[in-house]
Each structure stands twice: as C-alpha cells, then as structure tokens.
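WARN  no MSA supplied for this record, continuing single-sequence
INFO  ligand: zinc ion
INFO  echoing inputs
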Amino acid sequence: MVLNTAIQLACPLDGSPLHAHKRSFSCANGHRFDIARQGYLNLLPVQQKRSKSPGDSTEMIAARQRFLAAGFYDPIADQLIEILNNHGQLNSKMCLLDAGCGEGFYFECLSKALLKKAIQPGLVGLDISKPAIIAAARRNKAITWLVASNKQPPLMPASVDVIVCMFGFPVFDAFKNILKEDGKVLLVEARPTHLIELRKVIYTEIKQTNFPEISTAEQQGFALLAQGIASYKTATLETQQIADLLLMTPHMFRASLAGKQRAAALKQIELTVDVSLRLLQLNG
Ligand SMILES: C[S@@+](CC[C@H](N)C(=O)[O-])C[C@H]1O[C@@H](n2cnc3c(N)ncnc32)[C@H](O)[C@@H]1O
Ligand SMILES: [Zn+2]
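INFO  complex generated
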C-alpha cells in the first residue's frame, strides 16, 4: 500500500496521527492497524459497526462493478472530472477523499484522467463495506483504500481538500472537521427523472423523489460554488444489466415482489440518467 504524503491518516480510536510501517500503521498510543493482504487498511473499529457486515454486500458490489464497467455511467465520471478540473484547482499536493466509494470506479477514472496531466494528488477512497474496499483495492494500487465510516472519516482535522460523495450518505459535520479551511464537497445525487423508465416498471405509483436540500450543509458553513447536470439516455440494457442495476440501487429494498418480477421479465430497456453534481465550498 502506497501512502501519498498529502494523506494524513488518523487513528479511529483517539484521532492521533497514524504512522506508516512496512505492513501496518500505528499511533503514538499503541493502536496498530495491519495492512490487509489485498492492500487496504481497516480503520473501522467495532464500536462504529452497526452490524457484522455493514454496507453493501459482496453481491451488490459485484453487480455495481459489472454495470459500471459496461460504461452506462461513464458520462457521470466525465462530469465529475470536468467539475473538479474547472473548480477544484487540483494539484499534486492535495488530498481528495471519496466518501462511500463503493468499488472505486469513480476515483479510478479520476486518477487516470489526472495522471494524463501529470497531477498525482493523494487519493483516498473509504467505504463501510469490506467487500467494496476489497474490490477497490484489486482495481487500483495507487489509491489508498480504507474500510471506514463517513460518520468518522479517519483523516486528520483540516487535512483534506475535496470530499466527493456520490449516491451516498454525506455527514457534513464530520466532513467539515477533516476539510481544510476552504475545502470543498462534491455531492452527486439522483434528480427526479433518474431511471424513470425502470421505476415505472417496478412501482405502480411513482413517488416524486425529493431532491435533497443543502440546508444541513449550509448550517455547517458550506455554500454552493458550482453545479453540473449529467442528463442523457443510456444504451440498451439487457436482462442481466437490468438485474445488476436493481441490485445496486435502493429500489431492490423498496420494490414489491411483483415489481421486481416485472423488472426481471424485461428483455431490454433504455434509461434516462438524470444526476446532479453540486460543488459546495466551506466558508465560501
Ligand atoms: C449507493 S452506494 C454508492 C457507491 C459509490 N459512491 C458509487 O456511486 O458507485 C452507497 C455506498 O455507501 C456505503 N456506505 C453506507 N453507509 C456508509 C457509511 N456510514 N460510511 C461510508 N460508506 C457507507 C455502502 O457500502 C455503499 O458502497
Ligand atoms: Zn490510537
């Protein structure tokens, strides 16, 4: 596991700095965390676990990996890179965190795009799901992958430049704590017509999805700096890809059995992707 010097890890038990050794990290108070053989670090203490295996399951992660590898969400990755390039003033001294990174698709895309411009910031991806981080660690060895929680990201206060939170669970007070003074959060969220064709199949009544307010973020001192939208029609999804998409979204939990059966019977579908990317700045 390579640790870019821009990344300052913190002990999840007492918040003090973590120091790198050959196969482990430790803090001055004697807490030691071994680097897993797959090349990630587990910084999620049992006290922070709500269940034995929190977060997305192995099956959900594999489904997301297949779906994203097929390119259906590539334009979202492109927009992410564009908005960070245009407004993030990225350079190699920075530390960027993907909070709730799943199997690491988006930071892998970002890392490749930045490498072409000879920019190599410290990139950290964290997720509460161990299977997600194992998949991410297999994908890219230049990114630091952590099993950890957004509620207590194990990074030193005021050490992170940008936090990306995609289809996830932002925790603004925790984010604020680890961000530098003018740090940024990029929120990527579904807009009302996102995947509408599939939702019409699985639900008898379409609930108007409320687009999340940023008032909680504003209360913590964040302000909207820039906004992008990724809105397009996908290529045709076949039966397996529809099943994968269902597994990686909350619809799998929300839909009735009949709804899921209607989706499973679909041979093909083209979908609307409608996603917003909001860049917030602290003390902006
Ligand atoms: C909908 S997925 C999105 C994954 C990824 N950002 C993407 O867009 O492909 C949400 C992710 O958040 C993770 N997660 C859930 N609760 C979390 C927490 N408290 N801290 C960090 N990650 C969490 C899940 O394990 C899952 O991988
Ligand atoms: Zn410690």
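The chain has ten helices and 13 strands.
INFO  checksum written, moving to next record
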